[in-house]
Design goal:
Strands 2, 3, 4, 5, 6, 7, 8 and 9 form an 8-stranded mixed β-sheet that branches. The chain has a 4-stranded antiparallel β-sheet with strand order 1-10-11-12. A hairpin with a 5-residue loop joins strand 11 and strand 12. The protein has one domain: Nucleoside Triphosphate Pyrophosphohydrolase (Alpha-Beta Complex). Helix content is 18%, strand content 36%. The longest helix has 15 residues. The model has no long low-confidence stretch (mean pLDDT 91). It has 4 helices and 12 strands.
Length: 227
């Protein structure tokens, strides 16, 4: 979805607080690792968005980085406002596949190193989630990984305005998942948001508006871990 409008401005049409939050036991590193070793039968809740353009599909990968702190956190970025694709949005580190990438995990690791300086030795890849197709034509493979503390962040200032972490327990609680509706090109479209009240790089309170593809992939992660 383009930056031509503010997603914050669309009304909330539902909050999914009828769904159970995942427990601390389910969200432990060992439990998440085991879930990928022995995946359940499950179906992603959201697989694609209505197309917004007619350009050829492009394969991409993102790194769903789960940082092993006192509780797992998710490493996210705020994209800069001048980018052509998904400007200003909260996203996972990632990008389009290059011919030299061995597989989807290699793409995610390379992009994370280029965008935020996350070095591969700190990253333990657990596995891939089903692809998610954005309205802008990206077929995205989410690569889920555990990240050891001790890494440093060096954001590429062209692509990344900010890097921050959100507790996985907050993101895996559907009471924090909001549904919005918007009419786009004559059709009704719904999207999820997960607003997070955190702090910015200067330590000042700030609301990060997680929405669209990033929120949808997090919702699919919830379904995977809850299955």
């Amino acid at each position: 979805m383009a930056r031509a409008f503010d997603p914050n401005s669309f009304p909330v049409v539902g909050i999914d607080d009828h769904l159970p939050a995942l427990t601390a036991e389910v969200l432990r590193s060992a439990a998440v690792r085991q879930r990928f070793l022995m995946p359940p039968l499950w179906t992603p809740e959201i697989k694609h968005e209505p197309r917004l353009n007619d350009r050829s599909p492009t394969h991409a990968s993102v790194l769903v980085a789960l940082v092993e702190r006192d509780e797992l956190t998710v490493l996210l970025t705020q994209r800069t406002d001048h980018l052509n694709d998904h400007p200003g949005q909260v996203s996972f580190a990632g990008g389009r596949v290059e011919p030299t990438d061995a597989d989807a995990a290699a793409t995610a690791l390379r992009e994370a190193q280029e965008e935020i300086g996350l070095e591969a030795p700190f990253v333990d890849v657990l596995g891939a989630m089903p692809t998610y197709t954005t309205g802008t034509g990206f077929i995205v493979t989410p690569i889920v990984a555990l990240v050891r503390p001790g890494f440093t962040v060096a954001a590429d200032p062209f692509e990344v305005a900010e890097v921050f972490e959100v507790p996985l327990s907050f993101l895996m609680n559907p009471a924090n998942h909001r549904r919005h509706a918007v009419e786009l090109n004559g059709a009704q479209r719904e999207f999820l948001s997960i607003p997070w009240d955190g702090v910015d790089a200067q330590g000042q309170p700030r609301r990060f508006f997680i929405w669209g593809a990033t929120a949808a992939m997090l919702r699919n992660l919830y379904r995977f871990l809850a299955a």
